[in-house]
Amino acid sequence: MESFDIIKPSSVLEPYIKYYWILDYESKIIEPIRVIPYGCVQFTFYLGDRIQSLSTSNTSYFKDQAVVSGQSSMFMDVVPQGKIRLITIVFKPFGAKPFFDFPISYIKNNIVSIKDINNGEWIDLENRLGDCYSIKEIISTLEKTLIKKLEKNSLFNSYSSINYNRMTHAVKEIDKANGNIKSKQLSSLICLCDKQFNRIFTNYIGNNPKEFMRIIKYQSVLYKLQSSNLKDIQDIDFQDLVYEFGYYDQSHLINNFKQFTGYTPKEYIKQFAPCSEYFSM
């Protein structure tokens, strides 16, 4: 049995959170699920049996605990084992920073237990979520904590607020350009020198501008393939994709796919229906 639900956040949290997703899954056969980068930090609460996370850098197990998944620049395989129930907050690219007291880049390419963050409110949230039973109760508990953290966060002093708005604007410009925009152009648009822009962007988003734009460009290609309703891989004109999304050549496009998925575009499309979580949800 498997069920997957997406729930939109309340209006207060909508500027920061894309959605919550809830997965109920009972795995009888242990097989990896490939997770690819899509530009968002996530908070996940595990209610069921353990999940094994396999990446090129480490192997970890998570059981009955809350974790934060930072921005990633590589694919990862997760292996469900037994009965799984996940509740996940998917933050907007710039949306996690108001809720955490450290640069988001600190958790890049990492999955961190909430206990290791050493913040009493997050640890208290983990304990309270463990006492919840219904989805409605879980979402309500999550949102009360998140709103409380927003109200007291020092992000909303004048200087931080200006930088937050700048990063919001920068990400929106990157989205509009499908990731095909120069970092210098962005820094000029939001009135920062290149060095300041790179430092603040990495602090708020988790990846540096160049890394983030590569992910968004790749997600744009996925969304194009998803929207094309392809019936056969032979229908794909890779040269058109190269031209439309600003790759140097087909080798550049293929290398981008392999970095983020472990597959060439043709290998990927043979195994998976193209779907951009960034642009379609």
The portion of residues assigned to helices is 40-55%
Q: How many distinct helices?
A: 11
CATH architecture of the largest domain: Sandwich
Compute the separation of the termini in Å: 23 Å
Beta-strand percent range: 15-25%
- Please tally the β strands and state the result: 10
Contiguous low-pLDDT stretches (5 residues minimum) are none
CATH class of the largest domain: Mainly Beta
SSE class: alpha+beta
Q: Could you walk me through the main structural features you see in this protein, from its secondary elements to its overall organization?
A:
- The protein has 281 residues and is an alpha+beta fold.
- The chain folds into two domains: 2-154, Jelly Rolls (Sandwich); 158-281, Homeodomain-like (Arc Repressor Mutant, subunit A, Orthogonal Bundle), CATH 1.10.10.
- It is built from eleven helices and ten strands.
- The chain has a six-stranded antiparallel β-sheet. Strands 3-8-5-6 form a four-stranded antiparallel β-sheet, with no helix packed on it.
- A hairpin with a 4-residue loop joins strand 5 and strand 6.
- Helix 2 packs antiparallel against helix 3 and helix 5 packs across helix 6.
- The longest helix has 19 residues, at 158-176.
- It is globular, with a radius of gyration of 19 Å.
